[in-house]
Amino acid sequence: MTDESKATSDKDMSRSNRRVALICGGVFFGMVGMSYAAVPLYNLFCQVTGFGGTTQRAEQASEEIIGRKITVRFDGNVTPGLGWDFNPEHRSVTLKMGETGQIAYVATNTGAAPSVGTSVFNVTPFEAGVYFNKLECFCFTEQPLAVGESVNMPVVFFVDPAMDKDPELRHVREITLSYTFYPVDKPVKPIAAKSEDSATANRL
Predict the structure, then answer these.
(1) Distances in whole angstroms, Cα of residue 12 to Cα of each of 1, 9, 16, 22, 164
(2) CA 17 from centre of chain
(3) 81-123, pLDDT tens digit by residue?
(4) pTM for the complete prediction?
(5) Are residues 140 and 46 in contact, defined by beta-carbon separation less than 8 angstroms?
(6) Is the sign of the CA dihedral 44, 49, 51, 57 positive or negative?
């Protein structure tokens, strides 16, 4: 190979390496951006599509209650990076379809600093999500907690009696409602500001 051919080959290889580096960099930063956007995008997607056992929101209690009973189990999880203890007050409740039930989850900030979390949730089996109606919940809202602070978060719900007519769910006797809390990196209103507002209100 001549010196000229070798130089040309080196230039082509250098351009190729730069191209690969740029592509890898773009993929990396794209993945980072997607990770920050994952929770709000997931929330929007599930609310619009009902994907993955996403429950329904009801404005009023069911007008019909039938004899078939269903056991609802409750599960609580926290992702790494959020120093919280998060669990339901009761692990399960059995009620008639159409009957309104209420339980509460308790979250405690066991970390060394104030933090803000937000939750995503689902119901299993997934097919039952369309029949699980919430009258009150803490879904998709930012929850700030000071160090050592605890909060009770109620969930009021009912299982639509129409589920009894679904041939794919006739065998189902249990439904699991699961919440997972994620840290909020940039809360809408910082905890410090909230504390200052509270202090000002107390002085007034």
Answers:
(1) 15, 5, 6, 15, 68
(2) 40
(3) 999 999 999 999 999 999 999 999 999 999 999 999 999 999 9
(4) 0.66
(5) no
(6) positive
